[in-house]
Amino acid sequence: MEEKELSELLANVRIDPSLTSRTSQMDSLKLSELMVLKADIEAQLEKYFSALKEQGVGMDSSLVTPDGYPRSDVDVLQITVIRKNVNMLKNDLNHLLQISHVLLNQHFENMNVKTNQKTSGNNDDRTIQYTIPFAFISEVVPGSPSDKAELQVDDRLISIGGVHAANHSKLQNIQKIVIMNEDKPLPVRFLRDGQILTTSLAPSRNWDGRGLLGCRIQEL
């Protein structure tokens, strides 16, 4: 590949410089500014996921043939750069969410109101909506609680109960919240074919298989 072609390729998949600049300063941003930055990061991630989908690969797809040679049916360099950028942005997003949680707590601690009083409705009071998946379902057992909740293989989990991309702790917190909510409905948000969907999943031992969910969940 010629140097010009390489430069054009990298320019097409690089992270927006203005986005990079703002992520480097996120520790000093206000909560409302963080919410704007969050939306921009998620938009950039969606573009990358779409680019990977166009080539028929994901974050973990092999880029070499069984003989160990680079695949010729995909743009290996482009995919490699995109994957690197996705991982960087996911780390930035997790850091942003952690900062947002701290600022939200400080905001409410400084408000002398009762817990059931309505908030003022400005941008700093908005509940954070998570849209980035952190895990995917690799198996669903027929007749299981997950099957009854109409979850499917390859569904990408965005949240289950209060567990999401910023606090799943290598999926350990999914196990904890499932055990704590046995026979109680848990709200689940997930991504399927580019659409965010919701369902209600009730962990239970009241079925013919093993476990409370009857599905296999793997981290992205």
UniProtKB/TrEMBL annotation:
Annotated coiled-coil segments of the chain: none
Stated name of the protein: Probable 26S proteasome regulatory subunit p27
Biological processes per GO annotation: proteasome regulatory particle assembly
Residues annotated as domain PDZ: 112-176
Species annotation: Saccharomyces mikatae IFO 1815
Keyword set, alphabetical order: Chaperone
One cellular component term from this protein's GO annotations in UniProt: nucleus
